[in-house]
Design goal:
Length: 326
């Protein structure tokens, strides 16, 4: 799926005709001025960062595809996270990519004691080295991927294809992170998350805090969430604009940093269910106040994973072009 630009949703036009539609000194005026000056990422910066990511991704994926263990089972990469949702603010410095392994045949997901987490049972011979009592071990697969990605980086650094980049590998949670230095002083990170693709669903190697030693896989709705967020606004709506402004404030406000960006996204889901109209850019100030006053504790039930597990839509049905349909 192609990633829509901010202009597709009217975000890039927030600062246009500010004086004509918003009185100077009002909250609406200030928000419309704040957005292009402090929230938006320069198009040239984003284009350059995506070019760097594409170059590194191409080389790493080519190396993984040539591997003996997973090479024949790799699906096309899935781009997830804020850049590809159109929600990244300030700097294009974090990119999220899932690396899906296609499972076929006798593999079966079995629900665990934790909502959203599964055991993947079976054995077709190809994954025997990653089994624990006929269950695929997320830890073993993640460690093998880390080793393969490190070999890919070593190969890249010994060659001449990406000689202008400085690459460094680390791990954080389920992600294998490649930090890339480019253009002298700029840096960005690429988080690679190994995943299983089984019966049309994705399962990521993300351990549960209370069951670290269990071979659990978390069902992922990242691709569905990305599509949902990309399409949440009709022409001239401001849901994503409100969230991006809040994300920017969150980055610079210590009191708000007790919340993660994921909390902020869930607040938007909650607010969009409660306030089903009045999302025009002319109402940006009112929706901003609604968002800022929303108690995050009231939004815990609107965790996007729970919404997808319950087959609910975070946004109301609407006939407007580009809006989410159930």
């Amino acid at each position: 799926m192609a990633t829509n630009s901010d202009d597709d949703y009217g975000l890039g036009r927030l600062s246009v005709t500010v004086e004509a539609k918003a009185k100077k000194g009002t909250l609406l005026y200030e928000l419309r001025s704040f957005f292009p000056n402090h929230v938006e990422i320069k198009g040239s910066d984003m284009q350059k960062a995506k070019e760097v990511v594409e170059n590194v991704k191409r080389e790493v994926y080519s190396h993984l595809k040539s591997g003996k263990v997973f090479g024949g089972f790799l699906r096309p990469l899935e781009h997830t996270g804020s850049v590809y949702e159109g929600l990244k603010v300030e700097k294009p410095n974090e990119f999220d990519i899932m690396i899906p392994i296609r499972l076929e045949g006798i593999w079966t997901p079995q629900a665990s004691q934790v909502d959203g987490y599964y055991y993947i049972r079976g054995d077709d011979g190809s994954m025997s080295k990653f089994l624990e009592e006929r269950q695929l071990s997320s830890n073993k697969i993640r460690h093998h991927f880390q080793s393969d990605v490190q070999k890919a980086i070593n190969s890249i650094e010994s060659g001449r294809t990406l000689r202008n980049y400085d690459l460094h590998l680390s791990t954080h949670g389920p992600a294998i992170t490649i930090t890339v230095g480019y253009d002298g002083w700029k840096k960005l990170s690429i988080d690679l998350v190994p995943a299983l693709f089984l019966n049309g669903e994705y399962y990521v190697a993300k351990p549960h805090l209370q069951y670290q030693d269990e071979p659990l896989w978390r069902k992922s709705f990242s691709t569905k969430e990305k599509e949902l967020i990309q399409r949440m606004d009709g022409q001239g709506d401001c849901r994503r604009a409100v969230l991006k402004i809040m994300k920017t404030i969150h980055l610079h406000n210590k009191q708000l940093q007790v919340l993660s960006s994921y909390h902020l996204k869930n607040i938007l889901f909650h607010l969009s269910r409660k306030v089903q109209s009045g999302w025009s850019v002319d109402n940006l100030d009112e929706r901003f106040k609604d968002f800022f006053q929303r108690d995050p504790l009231l939004c815990q039930e609107t965790d996007s994973t729970k919404l997808f597990l319950r087959r609910n839509q975070p946004f109301p049905r609407d006939n407007r072009k580009g809006f989410v349909k159930s």
